[in-house]
Amino acid sequence: MADWTYTVSVRSLCEFTAKRGSLDRRFTPSATALEGQAMQLAVLARRSPGYEIELPLEAVHGHLRVRGRADGFEADVNRLEEIKTIRGPVELIPDNRRALHWAQLETYGALIAADRGLAELELALVYVDADTQHETVLRDKFTATALQAAFEARCAQFEAWAAQEAAHRGARDASLSALPFPLAELRPGQRLLAEAVYRVAANGRHLLAQAPTGIGKTLGTLYPLLRAMPGQRLDKIGYMTCKGTGRITALEALHALREAAPAKAASDDAPRGALRVLTLVAKEQACEHPTKACHGDACPLAHGFYDALPAARAEAVLAGWLDAPAQRRIALKHGVCPYYLGQELLRWADVVVGDVHHAFDPHGQLYGLAQAQGWKLALLVDEAHNLVDRARDMYSTSLSLDRVRSAVADAPKVLQPPLRRLARELATLARAQPADYQPLKAIPDDLAEALQRVNTALGEHVQNHPLEVGPLLEFYFDVLGLQRLLDRLDTHSLCDLQRSTAARQPSPLDAPVNLSLLEDDDDGTTDVLLSVRNIVPGFFLKERFEGLHSVTLFSATLGPADYPRNLLGLPEDTAWIDVPAPFPPEHLTVRVAPLSTRYEHRQASLNPLVDVIATQFAEAPGNYLAFFSSFDYLEQASQRLALRHPHVPQWSQARAMGDAARRGFLDRFVEDGHGVGFAVLGGAFAEGVDLPGTRLIGAFIATLGLPPVSPLQDQFRQRLDAMFGADHGYADLVPGMQKVVQAAGRVLRSVDDKGYVWLLDQRFRRPDVRALLPAWWQM
Fold it and tell me: pLDDT tens digits for 266-320?
């Protein structure tokens, strides 16, 4: 460690050394990144012609190389500026955040003074309001000597931590370079997957990997990416999941990999398991005081957070294994918030396990911090067939008229006029539309203006009442999100109105509507939902994929390759691999029943359908799952089976099942058991369920998984046809077949399993449908 250099950004250096006092997460309206860029351009337009922007600056102090880009320098007046875009008055910026801004500006001042040989310098902290473009400028003059002294003190404060991090990085990389596979050997399909993951990581590309259940996808992706980490100089790996169960599997695999790592790869004192693994926990799960505001005056775990953070951080990185229980234990020991401790530890972890929203949501912490810190980040996305729908949800939102009426009732009098106007405009639009469902090219100008006024009024209210929490703040988040998506509305998303019923009569159980709070032409009896529904999330995700070193998306049901590539916005050179199944084809008997489960034929299908189930059960007694397109169809089939074949044991998924009820459903699938469990395709039991051996020997799938016919579904199909051409099946057939294959994948869980899949619809023999089923299925 005698000859080492640690590179740190100005921002990271100052955040580590200058943050003090309490955590303050009171909501204040903030500017977006795009607004920040626009405000910087607005400031630039007011400066002299010789004004320099985005100045790259760098200096070496001891073992530290400090880098950054200063916002602007005006040489004729010898002034360096740091520009921060805000909303509202400067007085609302907490003192410790303003101190951080000054620390950054002073550090840039030291760098430019040394670079240009300046004896003194004027520093200007410029706060620009995103709404008014008004500048508030805080100025001070410093000598180069004073700036350099402060810079050196900051570096000295950070250098011990940097030495520790450099040693950790060296030990980690040496350990991973010699990392053995934790099991006896890679399985054949697992080896193909691992080689593909390693290649794309080495080439800085992305990969779509369709790999069946049973090959060991978790280890088959984590192991090669960890081995690639030293050679590619990756800062972090993110293992992103679409389902909570995926995180458990990932942590089990990472624990095995840490245990397999060489204990003393870099030096004699290198700790065993040098790899730091962090689980990102949802705030709702980690918060110890959910009724308190995230502020030092309200929550004891926010008070003095940044003063207690160094000791908590030091203990955490020494521990290395930072799942949710470990984060909570360390946080409470040091009197800090477990959730925000986890957010801080994100900077120092090597592998991050969490939900896909951390990487792909507009406010995803992992991606946002990676871009701000310049990390070289590679991602693995498990069960990636769910990412299209998950990403659509991230970039969709809606607002109901009833929600606005409730906000009117909850709001103080000063906010009621703009809220009443918004309710009136929505009610007027609801009555004027010709049908209960209506797509919109854009919202009417009067409604757009009303929405903007509500956002402005609520923004001012929140600024003046920063400790306020509750329904009104949540409503503000909703209307602000709606406004932002409407501002970016294009062919990738659909704006529409859905009227529940025309002039509906309130139920006696409904809370009474206070008509005096509404406008004269809103009688409180008509509801409408205004929505922005994302259809092609690739419009938003394309930039994210471009900013990541490598992304591997894997699932048993990804194909065809063009579907995720087009809808998610992946680059054209994204690689594709379809890993062969590890099962001998004869282990799975696949049969098609000559039935029709179309909606108009369902009553006629019930008798022959349950007869197929009963006959198969008689020929091969055991545990089966039967999947249906809806609860109504499920209940009809269950009742008909009980009527015609009462000797066949059965149990059913209910419309609303809690954790205990779901466990009870699965507990019926015992070794060598006998019976049929009825479930909904695409529901809780259609994927992510592991019933190996004789716990499950077969599945009946009585649907193609197609979405119900509706005006909304027609709009989705028309929009996708316009963008990608007709007959692609993106709107219905492809996602439907993914659900079918996922459900069928419950049957064979290991190479020794044997079982049956019955496809209960004659359409499964159509060439276009057959092409979307696994090629190794013998039908």
Answer: 444 444 458 999 999 888 899 999 888 888 888 999 999 999 999 999 999 999 9
Backbone angles phi, psi at 665, to 5 degrees: -60, -50
The 10s digit of each residue's pLDDT in 697-749 is 999 999 999 999 899 999 999 999 999 988 899 999 999 999 999 999 999 98
Q: Which of the 8 DSSP states describes residue 4?
A: -
Within 8 A by CB and 6+ apart from 706, the residues are: 629, 732, 733, 736
pLDDT tens digits, residue range 613-641?
Answer: 999 999 999 999 999 999 999 999 999 99
Q: Which tokens sit at 580?
A: 């062969």
Amino acid at 343: Q
For 563, list phi and psi in degrees, rounded to 5: -65, -60
How many angstroms separate the CA atoms of 514 and 238, rounded?
A: 50
User: Do the beta carbons of residue 555 and residue 745 sit within 8 Å?
Assistant: no
Residue 502 pLDDT: 42
747: Cβ contacts below 8 Å, ≥ 6 apart: 588, 696, 697, 698, 699, 753, 755, 756, 757
- Three-class SS of 110-141: HHHHHHHCCCEEEEEEEEEECCCCCEEEEEEE
Q: Residue 444, SS3? A: coil
Query: Six-digit token pair at 84?
Result: 């921060």
Average pLDDT over residues 762-775: 94
Model pLDDT, residue 107: 97
Task: Report the predicted TM-score, pTM, of the whole model to 2 decimal places.
Answer: 0.91
Q: How many whole angstroms from its chain centre is CA 442?
A: 28
DSSP 416-441: HHHHHHHHHHHHHHHHHSSSSEEEES
- Read off the pLDDT band of 512 (50, 70, 90): very low
HEC letters along 635-699: HHHHHHHHHHCCCCCEEECCCCCCHHHHHHHHHCCCCCCCEEEEEECCCCCCCCCCCCHHHCCEE
Contact 423, 408 (CB under 8 A): yes
Sorted by where each starts, the structural domains of the chain and their CATH numbers stand as 6-160 (3.90.320.10), 179-258+272-280+346-393+539-578 (3.40.50.300), 400-535 (no CATH), 585-770 (3.40.50.300)
* pLDDT of 140 higher than 50: yes
CA angle 704, 708, 712 (to 5 degrees): 135
C-alpha–C-alpha distance, residues 258 and 260, integer Å: 5
d(CA 424, CA 408): 11
Strands (E) located in 535-598: 550-555, 575-578, 588-592
pLDDT at 9: 93
The C-alpha atoms of residue 684 and residue 681 are separated, in whole angstroms, by: 9
Helix (H) or strand (E) segment spanning residue 69: strand 64-74
Polymer length in residues for the chain = 779
User: Would residue 688 be called left, alpha or beta, if left means φ above 0 and alpha means ψ between -120 and 50 degrees?
Assistant: left
72-81, 503-512, 647-656: least confident range? 503-512
